[in-house]
Every structure is written in C-alpha cells, then in structure tokens.
Amino acid sequence: MVDQGFRIPTKKSLVVRKVRDVTQKQRERAQAATEYNVFSFPAELLVVDYLSDSGTTAMTDRQWAALMYGDESYGRNTGYFVLLEAFRDIFERGDARRKTVDLILRNERDVDKLMDELLLVDVEGGFVNGGRFQLMRPNAFIVPQGRCAEHLLFTTLRKVLTEHFPGSEYWIPSNGHFDTTEANIHSNDIHPVNLFSGDIFSEFPVEEIRDVNPFKGDMDIRRLVKLIDEKGAESVPLIYLTITNNTAAGQPVSMRNMREVREVADRYGIPLFFDACRFAENAYFIKEFEEGYEGSSIPEIVREMFIHCDGFSISFKKDGLANMGGGLFFKDRGVFHRRFSVDADVGVLLKEMQILSFGNDSYGGLSGRDIMALTIGLYEVVEEDYLRDRIEQVRDMAEKLALNGVPVVLPPGGHAVYVDIDRFFEGTDVRIEDFGGVGLTLELIRRYGIRGCELGPFAFEWDKKTPEERKGILNFVRFAVPRNVYNVEHINYTVAALTELHRNRERIPKVEIVRGKELRLRHFQTGLRPVYS
To answer: Residue 300 region, left (φ>0) first, then alpha (ψ -120 to 50), else beta?
Structure first.
C-alpha cells in the first residue's frame, strides 16, 4: 500500500540538458555588460530561470510527434482546420469533444470523410466560425502570442472609438491588467484600471493551502459598479477579467465572480472579455475549492467559464500549452460584435489588421509545426493529472519558502510563487522608489544563477504615475515555474537561495535607473545600476 502522503508519478523525463558551470565572477561580468537588465542577462549562464513560464515549457512526446505533421502551406494549411476544431472542443464543447485532429494523425484515407468532418465544415454562433462564416463574419484570429492579440484588439477598438465617438475618454476595468495588456491599452489612449480583490494580502495559514482557497483573484464588484456609474457605460468599451490573475499573484478567479461580473456587464450592455492565458489552471482551482464543482470534469468547468464571456484574448504560451501561439476570439453576433460593428464588421477590421501585422489568417505568424504542437497542447492542458502535478509543484515551493520565513503570497496560484517585497524588506531602509524587488532579482542572479521577475513599482512605473494610479500597483517578485522543466532539486535550491537572501536582506542593493526611465515597458530595455550600502 502506497503512503497517501506521496503522489503517484505521472510522467518521466527522457531528454536531459546539462547546466553550465558558471562562476559568480562570470555572472557579475555578464550583468555589467548587459546594464544589469534582468531580461537581457544570457539564459545560458543561469542555473534556474523563473523569468516567465511563457513559451518556456518542455513539450510532450505527443506534441513532438504531432509537429512532424506540420503543413507549411500558405493558404488553409491542414493545421488551421484541426486547430479551429480544437478551439471549439476546449472552449465550447466540454466533455462532448470531437477531436478531429485524430483524422490527420491516423492518416484518414476517406477523402469525403475528411471534407465532411473537417475541411469543409460551416460553423457559426460560437467563438470560432468555420467555413464560409469565418470568411463572412471572422471572429477567431491566430497570432504569435498574447500581446499580439491585445494589439489587434485595442488598436481596432481605438480606431472605431475615434471615428465614431471623437473627443471622449475611455476606461477598461480589470481584476488585474498585466504589463503588456496595460501598455497596449495605454498606447491607444485608453485608461486601464485595476480593481483588485480587497483581500490579496490577507493572512492565510500555510497549513491550509491544500484545503481552502479564498479566490483572491476575483474582481471587486462594488468598485466596478462605482467606476461604470462615475464614468458612464458608454465610456467603458470592455470589462477585462484575467484568469488566473497574474498581476495579483497568480490568484484564481471563482466561477461565482465570473457570474457576478457577467451580470454587471449585462446590466450596462458592456462586453466582458477574458484574458484567458491560464484558464485551465483556473478551472482546476474551481474544481478543487468551489462548492458544487468537485464532481465536474475540467473540460466541463472550462465550458461553463467561457459561457460567461463575450470574447477573450489568450497567450497559448502560458498554461503549458505550447512554445508559441496566441489568439483573439469573440462570440458570433454577440455584444462585442454588435457594439463595435458600426460602419464595418469589427471582425473584418480585426482580420485586416491581423493580415497586415502577422500574416494570412490561416497561420497568423505561426509555422505549421507550431500549429500542430499547439493543437495537441490544448487537449493535454485540461488533463487533470497534468494540472495536479503543475499546481502541486508550485505549492511545494511556496510552502517551503513560507515555512522558512520568506514572505510569499498565500495560498499560491497555479503557475508561480510571488514574494511580497514590502514584507521581505521589513526592518530595512528600502523605500518603494529604491526598487528593492529589482535588487533582489539582481542578487539572485549574481550569487546563485537564479532569475525571477520584478512585478512591482519598477515594471509598472510607480514613479511615473499619479497617486490614484499607484493604487493599482502591487509589489512582487514572481517566480514562474515552466511546465515539465524543473524537479525538486531546482525547487530546493531556489528555496535555499531565497531564504539566505531574506536573512541577509540588508545587503541587497538598491537600484537606480541610468538609461531609459521614460520608456514604456521599460523593464524589458532600461539600463540599471545596483547601489550597495
């Protein structure tokens, strides 16, 4: 009988990549040469890299096998058809999936069957029109990654708003805009507003992380209604709900909150969009912790989640899906389509921008190999054993850090551990304008070859914002765990390094910006200088 304290393994690693033996002195040289920019530090010189889980995952054997079926045709490659069907399976059909990709993988010889079930299918009424309806009323757009989908959405929104409602100001509320989302909204002269749940920093006992979850990623409904009433519904083109809430420590959003936001959106006639990058992890949290869903399958929970939205943008590089890909979707003839199809169909406008920016609609900047790997990834990401393994690895890391006294946000989310920087530097003279989170990331690289990502006053430009805007900025360093890449040795090494730095936090440098302070998305491109006491 296996002790119930142990989890039965669900996978094994068959490919190994060696880590280079790099000295601290060599890392210091590289930091100086790259202006102490965390994003510019060469990954080859790291031991563990938690900068992002976006596209950094290890593909499975099934994805590698499907990659060989990649069709690089310019117009209507085979992968286009199976990918659209996978979208319908995952986001609309729940357990009633058709999985027509198997027709290609098993080399179906019946041409009429292929035509009738895959290649010439007319579909309308959902997130993914097919056949002639995707030509007449396009509503599904393949792009290289999530920020490309955001670019399509907000530039097209701005165009419609400017042409038909000139002189107005607009606000897009969210439970937590991520950095590229916020930048894409700002660059189109729209105001992003974060309406975080009020209990993100509430105390949570570490021993309960597997038993209870308060869904700290929820949107504050009271503040949402207040914002719409103050600004006017006509000044709120979209409500944006991020699942899971990456900016707010990767916390999940409850199905109840999705329904509540939906009700507000319906009351005011405003489209509700999801930033759906980590939808599968969010569904797992709902199954684990929300009453009434313990007996539901992950695919059925996903189907119900997406009933509540009018559209969504997504990076398929997140949630362990694939190394490349993104998408933008909206419901055929739904609220968004009706509101923004003024002189022209908004889907046609989006498609024109897609073709101009990323290529023909049937590949959207992706190779045929990428498309096939992504298709398989969509089915794998809703497998419960995969989600359990991924989320448990993150919980293990958060639990060990918390027990060592390192202040992390509890309970942890599904893809990353977030260190609370305000609490981390308690007892020191580090101020918010000293960018202590960046100093922590620099020391982790210098001493241990570990890279994290500051998501706080530096990344979200605290010093450039008004006091009101600063209320939407939290102060974290994120450690995003790539799928199927690291094992318990990597986690334990990270825990030991962070614990040692926390105990010696007064030695961590403050940070000054020496080049590019006014740049948008400056954390990707500025020059910095660590200042040691």
So the answer is: alpha
Place of tokens 């990323």: 358
CA distance 91 to 313: 12
Better-predicted residue by pLDDT, 466 or 152: 152
| Whether pLDDT at 167 is above 80 | no
- CB-based burial label for 22 (10 Å; 0-12, 13-18, 19+): middle
Burial, 13: exposed, middle or buried (Cβ in 10 Å; 0-12, 13-18, 19+)?
exposed
**DSSP codes, 401-425:** HHHTT--B-SS--SSEEEEEHHHHT
Lookup result for tokens 């991020």: 242
Please indicate, yes or no, whether the overall pTM of this predicted structure exceeds 0.85.
Answer: yes
Q: 336-356 burial, b if ≥16 CB within 10 A, otherwise e? A: bbebbbeeebbbebbbebbee
- Backbone region of residue 215 per phi and psi (left: phi > 0; alpha: psi in -120 to 50; beta: other values): left
Maximum pairwise Cα distance, the chain: 74
Q: How would residue 178 be classed by pLDDT, with cut points 50, 70 and 90?
A: confident
Tell me how far CA of residue 103 lies from CA of 116, 119, 129, in angstroms: 12, 11, 20
pLDDT, one tens digit per residue, over 93-129 is: 999 999 999 999 999 999 999 999 999 999 999 999 9
Please give the Cα distance from 444 to 447 (Å, whole number): 6
| CATH number (domain holding residue 279) | 3.40.640.10
55 in Cβ contact with 323 (< 8 Å): yes
pLDDT (0 to 100) of residue 2: 43
Same domain for 398 and 284: no
CB atoms within 10 A of CB 119: 17
Domain hosting residue 230, numbered range = 167-341
**Residue 5 pLDDT level (bands cut at 50, 70, 90):** low
| CATH code for the domain of 521 | 3.90.1150.10
Tokens, residue 255: 């199905």
Report yes or no: 415 and 278 within 8 Å, Cβ to Cβ. Answer: yes
CA dist 308 and 348 (Å) reads 24
